[in-house]
């Protein structure tokens, strides 16, 4: 019973994220990756590595490309809210962490990426302090990769 409650509250960092949550994180990462128009092979590899590291679930490059092809360029405010519907707080944090990791991978955040990331954070109901913490983690990840 205690293990079930701890798992429900998200206290098991060794356990992979739920499939539904990992798929939503991947979708958000594909959206931010496609903000500049296309997702290059290097970006697919980065998304694949990042999603595996953050969620404990792996996706094939073909799955990532299919998901990227399904992204829509002009999202409505309710679309940003829908990214987080049914997700737990720690899953939303993983989503923002992953999205920021992709957005800053070029060394800077482009305007379209900035709009996507900030609107997503707002749609998820994330506070500024949590957002800045996730940005710090994404920068630390980028530095650890040597990018």
UniProtKB/TrEMBL annotation:
User: Which InterPro entries does the UniProt record give?
Assistant: DjlA_N, TerB-like
Q: Which domain of life is it from?
A: Bacteria
Q: Which organism is it from?
A: Yoonia vestfoldensis SKA53
The record ties this protein, via Pfam families, to: TerB (PF05099)
Q: Which positions fall inside the Co-chaperone DjlA N-terminal domain?
A: 25-134
Question: This chain belongs to which protein, by name?
Answer: Co-chaperone DjlA N-terminal domain-containing protein
């Amino acid at each position: 019973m205690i293990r079930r409650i701890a798992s429900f509250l998200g206290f098991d960092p060794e356990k992979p994220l739920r499939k539904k949550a990992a798929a939503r994180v991947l979708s958000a990462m594909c959206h931010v990756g496609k903000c500049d128009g296309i997702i290059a092979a290097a970006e697919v590899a980065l998304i694949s590595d990042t999603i595996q590291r953050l969620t404990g679930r792996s996706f094939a490059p073909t799955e990532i490309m299919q998901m990227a092809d399904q992204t829509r360029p002009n999202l409505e405010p309710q679309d940003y809210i829908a990214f987080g519907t049914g997700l737990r707080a720690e899953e939303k944090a993983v989503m923002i962490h992953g999205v920021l990791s992709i957005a800053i991978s070029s060394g800077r955040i482009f305007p379209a990426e900035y709009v996507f990331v900030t609107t997503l954070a707002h749609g998820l109901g994330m506070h500024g302090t949590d957002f800045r913490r996730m940005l710090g983690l994404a920068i630390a990840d980028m530095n650890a990769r040597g990018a």
